[in-house]
Amino acid sequence: MPELPEVEALAQHLRDHALYRPVARVDVASMSVLKTFDPPVSALVGRVVTGASRFGKFLSVDFEDRPDAGPLHLVTHLSRAGWLRWHEQASSTPPKPSGRGPLALRVHLDAVGGPGFDLTEAGTQKRLAVYLVPDVSQVPGIARLGPDALDLSREAFGELLAGRSERIKNLIVDQKVLAGIGNAYSDEILHTAKLSPYAVSGRLTAEKVDALYAAMRGVLTDAVERSVGQGAASLKGEKRSGLRVHARTGLPCPVCGDTVREVSFADRSFQYCPTCQTGGKPLADRRFSRLVR
Fold first, then answer.
1. Class for domain 4-143, per CATH?
2. Model pTM?
3. What are the start and end residues of each CATH 3.20.190.10 domain in the chain?
4. Most buried among 48, 107, 190, 258, by the most CB within 10 A?
5. What's the rounded Cα separation, in Å, for the pair 10 and 8?
């Protein structure tokens, strides 16, 4: 799933390539991707791209403010398997709106068949969501977002954790509490901070909160710096190359050499290093035990 660093890089890629270009046509290949219907996507035709913004893990392509109609924002949440792909040229034949292939929506800029971008989604679980709204706060997921992970001060971060009973892994991926962090970077942040994923948020000492805050800032900032400037096509590989524990089950921890372990749930899993994070004790995996200690 694209997280804060990748979405920020995609926004920058659009700022570098799409700015001040008018929309020639919008093709919808999967009607289910559209979560709003008024205004229709055809309202973008002739509109000029004025910016690209990130809200947590949401990406917004911003269009000119017209006196007779106001601004418009094409907002997407890429979910688990969605992606944005830039093209210098594309087929001028509109796709059939079957929703069976990876293409969900295509935006032609300057001219039909010219440059632009596609929103795509791999796999059979179609969760990619697109909204066309005059105000980004009209997108329900954005309206519910907590503070951005890179906008918090240390003091505000400590206040956010105080008194909370959630396990720290669950809390820092809850977008209503803290926006932008997903499964992969939460694994990396907790490994860097040397914290168990099951540590209780409100029971962390001041020193551990310091370590967690520094790890969050460091991991995300480093990932943004590595990602911004990369082409959209290379961002996934760039993300994988920077991971130390996430998706590395069975491989040696690059810090201590212990074997990276995994805990799996019904629809997700996370990775950690026992030596670095849990005092050498492996966490029980619900695939083998009903009790997680």
1. alpha beta
2. 0.92
3. 4-143
4. 190
5. 5
